[in-house]
TrEMBL record:
Pfam families: SH3_Tf2-1. PANTHER family: CHROMO DOMAIN-CONTAINING PROTEIN (PTHR46148), PTHR46148:SF55. This is Tf2-1-like SH3-like domain-containing protein. Residues 151-216 form the Tf2-1-like SH3-like domain. The lineage of its organism: Eukaryota, Viridiplantae, Streptophyta, Embryophyta, Tracheophyta.
Amino acid sequence: MPTCQAIQATTSTTPLPASIQQVIQQFADIFNEPTHLPHSRVCFDHKISLRAGTETFNLRPYRYSIVQKNIIDQLVQDMMEQGIIQHSSSPFASPTVLVRKKDGSWRLCVDRSLSAREDAIKLLIFHLLRAQNRMKQQADKHRSDRQFSVGDYVFLKLHPYKQHFMRKTQFHKLLPKYYGPFKVVDKMGAAAYQLELPKDAAIHNVFHVSQLKVCHDPTAAIVHNIPGFMSQPPTRVPERILERKMVKRGRVAATKVLVQWKDTPPDMAT
């Protein structure tokens, strides 16, 4: 299929010789850029003389028979339906979508800038998916599949509540963070459970599965001192001293005691 292409002409920036510039300036009225068609002349006129009574031709440069024209129209329609060609929005040339190579295969031809943009987007998606998979692998290392049944006993973790020392200390990792055990009375969906809490507990009895830990020994020491209000830390009242020992604080000897707090078992002493 023949196509037309537009070529933009550029003017030369090479300076003209002085002799030519002098001639152009001398006959400036002749070398002016025309703004209209030349006037009609008696001796010679700029036109193509036609025979009397004839009309101009308005025919295609290539004429086909009816059979060939129908075949061409059918081929064009099939190629448009298959996406090989498409309607052109350019007044100069028809866009080519697919080009047949020597080996008989078809190759998609698109704009280079569009192709580069698609490659950049594919590269970004690849790196994003790889980073997401890496983050998921690291997060899954600290996760476990927890499922409980009605009647099981679990420990309850109340963040940010944990056992507090009366004196200031910077080591809090080994402090107890779980309360209970408590009995599971109902399963709320796939990730929440309802627990049987003490009557004096002022918190809701439905918790996410991530806040629970299985209790293998329901007869273990029970810790029911759940905070009454989530915005206030629990009040610690010493009950008795279980053990006493001498420790060295720098060059000064100090006494360290093991205190059992009120409403807590001895194994929760600090």
